[in-house]
Amino acid sequence: MMARTLVRDGLALLAASVSLPALAQSSPQGAEGFAITNATIAIGDGSAPIHGGTVVVRGGKVVAAGAGIAVPAGVEVIDGTGKWVTPGIVSAVTDLGLVDVGAVDESNDDYAEKAGFNAALDVSAAIDPDATPIGVSRAGGVTRAAVAPVAANAIFAGQGAIIDLAADIDPVSRPRAFQFVELGERGAALAGGSRVAAQAVLRNALREAADFDRRSGISKIGGAKGVPASTGDDIPLDPRMAQTTQGRADDGLLTRFDAAALIPVVNGRQPLYVHVERAADILQVLRLKDEFPALKLVIVGAAEGWRVASRIAAARVPVLASAITDLPGRFETLAATQSNVGRMAQAGVKVALGGFYDNDQPRYAPQYAGNLVAVAQIPGATGLTWGQALASITSVPAEIIGEGGRFGSLKPGLAGDVVIWDGDPLEVTSGPVAIYIDGVKQNMVNHQTRLRDRYRHPQEGPLPKAYQ
Amino acid sequence: MKLRHLGRLAGHALAGLALAASSGAGFAKPKQDDQSFQLKDKPYPSTYKPYPGEAVAIVGATVYDGAGGRIDNGTVLLSGGKVEAIGGADLSVPQRYARIDGAGKFVTPGVIDIHSHLGVYPSPGVQAHSDGNEATSPTTPEVWAEHSVWPQDPGFTRALANGGVTSLQILPGSANLMGGRSVVLKNVPSRTVQGMKFPDAPYGLKMACGENPKRVYGDRNQMPSTRMGNFAVDRQTWIKAAEYKKKRDAGKLDSRDLAMETLADVLAGKILVQNHCYRADEMAQVIDMAKEFGYKVSAFHHAVEAYKIADLLKENDICSAIWADWWGFKMEAYDGIPENAPLLADHGACVIIHSDDENGIQRLNQEAAKAQGDGRRIGISIPDEQVISWFTLNPARALGIDGRTGSLAPGKMGDVVLWNGNPLSVYSRPEKVWIDGALLYDAMDRNRRPVSDFELGQPGEGDVK
Q1: Angstrom distance (rounded) from CA A93 to CA A341
Q2: CATH for A4-88+417-454?
Q3: Which residues in chain A touch residue B310, judged by CB atoms under 8 angstroms apart?
Q4: What value of ipTM does the predicted structure carry?
Q5: Would the CB atoms of A455 and B425 count as touching at under 8 Å?
Q6: From A338, which residue of chain B is nearest by alpha-carbon distance?
Q7: B174-203 per-position pLDDT tens digit
Q8: I need a surface site. Which of A216, A303, A443, A447 has the fewest CB within 10 A?
Q9: Is the N-terminal amide bond of B124 cis, ω within 30° of 0?
Q10: Which residues have C-beta within 8 Å of that of residue A6, sequence separation ≥ 6?
Q11: Chain B residue with minimal CA distance to A356?
């Protein structure tokens, strides 16, 4: 994994050489770099778009973006007249790569209700870069995602991964990036029937993990074959694989594997993503830090976050929230409003749009962000500025998932994840016309575009459609 | 998040809807003059009465009339609950009319959603509220959606305020082949369902083909468990309905049969078939079944593969009620493409954008615009004024109410939305919504923002949603 970015271009070429011709459109472009000129540039950091700007990408990374930027010699120049350029969309959290068809169980790896493990589950082994939703999302401008498992047999769903959506065979850039836990209505059901039970299950699990670590020293002795816990790379070794013969408390409820997986959570080395919606549940989550001070929390959902926004901001806990939830769909979302994200942002919460599952497809993020700009015009409502709205689907989710130093905006040094749009990217009539990931031009052909082309005219020709 | 969807898969949303309507002539209309259509045959009558509204002139706006017309710097006059006139800047405005400055704003007919489960799967979506599908038998044409609708569903108010929805069809779910009668509502808050019923709108019959019925009953080890089983059960049921109708027409009925009454009225052309169906090949089979028994499909709902048979749908005068780009959530949705609507329109077939969703119903305008943009990128240019008809006049036609609403023609119901920008932009929202000439939503006036009983005294009551 660590060497992955170094070989990306080679992998892309390999993928192309073994693919069907129609699908083999990944190109090695990007090695020498490219510049998009005379376009409307949106950096993605919250700033307003820049007209007549330039973006330069070399060596797979953004070199410069903005106005008055000189185009270096030797790079391909792409005329961006009439076009908009943004960083790629970052989708957090989602089931991308775990699902082919939602209602076809055998095509899915998003949850495992009959598994013997929960916190130990690690989605990175199951992510399929060829899953059709990945290609469709990529064509919609989504370049990175935080992929989370879905809780099915316990409040802990397991460990999520950071992926890129490049058209190659190696999607995972950071395995075991976070642990996901349900503590609201869903968590109550999974814990045995009440939030009371969910709180007990959580506390017991974290204490068992801490106890296991004390006895075994896993977080100090490191991983398999005696390799030290830190390798210099910031991806920790998998504590489940630690070689230790040390035992655990006799009354432990967790499997050894699950307990080991929670050690980096309780130590604060792996963030804990907590799904809660109602205001009271959010405060319970914030209070966890009193008991477990090292926890690195991210709240997912937070439909009623606006009611406790200043408390969330003070706790410096970031939030991944839905933009459009405005109905009391459950008793835990009674106060849902499309002003939620805007009000939290105004209170100083670091908040991004998140939760892209099922018919909330990752490629809808720009539309949802645009709706928050629209909301801002309604008396009594709170939305986002255009710049904030774009940031809420690019740089801010990247920061929340711990990748702000690698991708998420067009700042120099970040990954060359660039989308060229045929208009304002948040406008529903606009769409991507070119997509780059790590500076590599991406394939935009997928199952949908092939069907579209075949049925441009529905009638059969001289031969059946199957020959077209 | 996930749970919501699993609920959807198991319940209403998947089940699609099946509206049947068509884009033009030959569309089945209820026969009001039929002698059998007497008062006793119209129980649970509408008690809806338009609320009072002042005479209004919206001036200086861009007007999309819903029927494909566009007037820049236009004038719309509402009076007596009706659209009185529309025209250009030269249309004279009588003294007594309240003038509303529409400069920079847009006017459309009220939005119509042909596929909604508001009220029958209301918020909060708890089991006690799950009243959308009497799936205890593969065919239940005897049930009527209006007997399940909860008028206090907060979803109605969101559809009004954020979506500009003024009329909507509430359908039973699609777990079974014949889910029951639909009901068409005006989106006006009321203590009773009767107080929302669109007066004299034809009923619809919800039918479903494909995965849902065969899965639901196959899992119970009963018929149908296959697509061929779906058709066999449908056909046997239509045979019975034809016999019932024959007896009824001859005045030889011994007793009433609610199920057969509904089906006989379909065969008589009084009830419109709204048919949930995803796959192209299955739609073609349904078209032949309709011909076998002499009824007409008004619209195929969900129809994600309609683009594959645009010619067939046009030839048979059947609308496709579709999402812009929902796709892939079940096997029969795997071939959905974002260009479905523009490809249909390009071949002259009738397009309706529907929601089937309490969130999506708040953004039918945006969904239509998305499809328009996806068309433009493959060289299909559809003018804004035509795209507007996808969520106004076309659904009205497929519901059999186009004579009274769906466009801004003089004499039609005063169902009107004033948008604060182009409705085909993500940045626009309804500013004012009139239903039968009564101002029932005004973004600038808190007193014109409805709050359902359920939300009273709860966190967020009366908030901007």
Answers
A1: 16
A2: 2.30.40.10
A3: 458
A4: 0.92
A5: no
A6: B465
A7: 999 999 999 999 999 999 999 999 999 999
A8: A447
A9: yes
A10: none
A11: B1
